[in-house]
Specification:
By secondary structure, the chain is α/β, with parallel strands linked by helices. The chain folds into two domains: 428 residues, Rossmann fold; 101 residues, 2-Layer Sandwich (GMP Synthetase, Chain A, domain 3). 30% of the residues lie in helices and 23% in strands. It contains 18 helices and 27 strands. The strands form six sheets. Strands 2-1-11-10-12-13-14-15-16 form a nine-stranded mixed sheet, sandwiched between helices. It is globular and about 70 Å long. It starts with 7 loop residues before the first helix and ends in a 13-residue tail after the last helix. The structure holds ligand 6R9. The site of ligand 6R9 has 22 residues, from α10, β14, β21 and β22.
């Protein structure tokens, strides 16, 4: 089958984002609304009865929704939000497992001009509070099983006017809570979407940095232009594909390529609302005849661990194209996938902030296993010298990955944090915070992050958030969190803790602190190991030197420690 991108060199020549605008029938200055593009437009093209969503729960039960279903159900949500008194521009949080209401309400929020704020349902109350407080969120959509977490923080977030419970049934609800059942509400066939334009805010995705609490990367409706085209050219979605993105929409991959990309292309997508198991995943591919699969290195390493025997028990011949994102995809994983599935995983690199893929391996392109590939057409990417912030001319030399601002899905600011946004730019380059080198053929090779952010299983966890939560434990006097090498998750969280005078380190206390973090933040942020120490290495200005702890953990050179406090 001919891929959508054809020849990369041809596409690169004279590339202009207007290619995407034309395909979408968008002209500069027109209104543009992602919710409308992902449902109404596909129906207008005569595909209303085409399957948009095949959904499966952990027991294997299925639900099916056509494009006309997602169009009318998202209208129903949008209409309901307006009737509740929610206004365009207000933040509406989606705090649900991967149920159909998550995907469909996302479109509904965008249609009424709201800003969608998706958060992992695995988040504990502290993680939730930080993000709702920062965004001054007006409403949250959730399920009964998660509502208690919202109840516990309710007093601290007076701006949260509505807690919409999508599966309340006959259960009695409490203060500010209100039931809404998507399928039992009269469907709204016609809804005039709020006239959003290219620069109107659309999605707010929280991401972790080294310092301070997580920041909300704010996107706009124009992001569609690059999300649509990268989906078409890199994921290579074609009309008859059945596509599976394994990412949760609490992560940007789950919205850009788990909602917007496939639906704006009018493709059928499948969602599995269940945890990981190799057998379960292969059975899902076999049952729904998945053709294009977008996943992450940690999952691929778990599949590798379970071996090829289990692959052979399933008919996976429907698979046509495989892609990966979130962490470095090791060369072994690419070679293994060729052996196991007869096809390589294609690595793609991007960030919450970039909104869409920026460096990728295209279908048909020669893959160099271990490389992230080349910049997408329309993306100017380079590596910069870390001191002069000038592009490095010499192939193979490691520098900071940097992008020329201006691609359509670039984030527009960090919510309420313009100063940190501004600090991401040097000499008119956007600095990603990662290190890489470029080989003589123009392929990018990832080296590592340039900050203390921990990448565990493709999820970024900020050390500051963990350390702040640790300090809330009565026994903890001081703490530092770093990433420690892990064969499956690449990194897991390791915490260094100095105890208060009345406490003695022991296994029970270690377990208690671990669970404390799991409940407050999330299972991902929970330290897998705690080292009890007398004190932590600090700079003379009092900053904890995580770099030193990390170097010891990774057996790396310690580097310059001239600022280390030595008394
Ligand atoms: C989409 C997403 C972004 C950070 C990024 C980098 C790491 C992502 C990668 C990769 C090596 C790849 N990362 N893709 N590292 N190879 N193909 O992951 O967004 O959660 O914001 O993470 O993830 O460190 O800067 P986000």
């Amino acid at each position: 089958m001919m891929s959508n991108i054809g020849s990369y060199e041809q596409r690169l020549k004279n590339f202009d984002w207007s290619v995407s605008e034309q395909e979408l029938g968008y002209k500069k200055g027109d209104p543009i609304n992602i919710g409308w593009y992902c449902s109404d437009r596909i129906c207008k093209m005569g595909k209303g009865s085409k399957m948009a969503l095949i959904w499966e729960d952990f027991k294997g039960n299925n639900k099916y929704y056509t494009y006309d279903d997602i169009r009318t159900y998202s209208n129903t949500f949008a209409d309901y939000f307006l009737k509740l008194g929610l206004k365009p521009g207000e933040r509406i949080c989606i705090f649900m497992d991967r149920v159909p209401e998550l995907y469909i309400s996302f479109l509904g929020i965008l249609k009424m001009g709201g800003i969608a704020q998706p958060l992992f349902s695995a988040f504990g109350e502290e993680s939730l509070l930080t993000r709702l407080e920062n965004a001054k969120t007006s409403a949250i959509l959730t399920q009964l099983k998660h509502v208690s977490k919202v109840r516990r923080i309710l007093k601290q977030i007076p701006h949260l006017r509505h807690i919409i419970v999508v599966d309340a049934g006959t259960t009695a609800l409490k203060e500010r809570e209100i039931p809404f059942n998507m399928e039992e509400t009269t469907r709204v066939d016609k809804f005039e979407y709020y006239k959003t334009f290219a620069d109107t805010p659309s999605v707010l995705h929280y991401t972790s940095g080294t310092t301070g609490q997580p920041k909300g990367a704010q996107h706009v409706h124009y992001s569609l232009i690059s999300q649509y085209l990268t989906t078409k050219w890199v994921l290579d979605l074609q009309p008859d594909d059945i596509y599976w993105c394994t990412a949760d929409p609490g992560w940007v991959t789950g919205t850009s390529y788990g909602i917007i990309g496939p639906w704006s292309n009018g493709v059928t997508q499948a969602v599995l609302d269940s945890g990981f198991s190799s057998d379960r995943w292969y059975a899902f591919i076999e049952k729904h005849k998945i053709t294009v699969w977008y996943s992450a290195p940690t999952a691929i390493r778990l599949l590798m661990r379970d071996g090829t025997e289990i692959v052979k028990k399933h008919d996976l011949s429907s698979l046509r194209h495989l892609c990966s994102v979130g962490e470095p995809l090791n060369a072994e994983a690419v070679l293994w996938s060729k052996e196991a599935f007869g096809k390589p995983f294609h690595d793609t690199f991007w960030q919450t902030e970039t909104g869409s893929m920026v460096i990728t391996n295209y279908p048909g392109m020669n893959i160099k296993p271990g490389s992230m590939g080349k910049p997408f057409p329309g993306i100017t990417a380079t590596v910069l010298d870390p001191i002069s912030f000038k592009p490095i001319a010499q192939p193979g030399k490691v520098g900071l990955i940097a992008l020329k601002p201006g691609w359509p899905s670039m984030f527009r600011t960090y919510w309420n944090n313009q100063a940190i946004y501004d600090s991401k730019f040097k000499n008119d380059w956007y600095i990603c915070g990662d290190r890489a080198s470029i080989d003589p053929d123009g392929y990018f090779w990832f080296v590592g992050r340039d900050d203390d952010v921990i990448n565990t299983g493709g999820h970024l966890v900020g050390p500051f958030e963990i350390e702040s939560a640790l300090l809330e434990h009565p026994a903890v006097a001081e703490s530092a969190a770093i990433g420690k090498p892990d064969p499956i998750n690449m990194e897991v969280v390791k915490a260094f803790v100095a105890l208060k005078p009345d406490y003695e380190p022991n296994d029970d206390l270690e377990l208690e602190i671990m669970n404390f973090i799991r409940k407050k933040l999330s299972p991902l942020a929970m330290p897998q190991e705690i080292a009890f120490v007398k004190s932590l290495p600090k700079t003379r200005s009092g900053k904890i030197m995580r770099r030193l702890l990390r170097a010891q953990e990774w057996n790396e050179p310690i580097g310059d420690i001239s600022t280390l406090e030595n008394d």
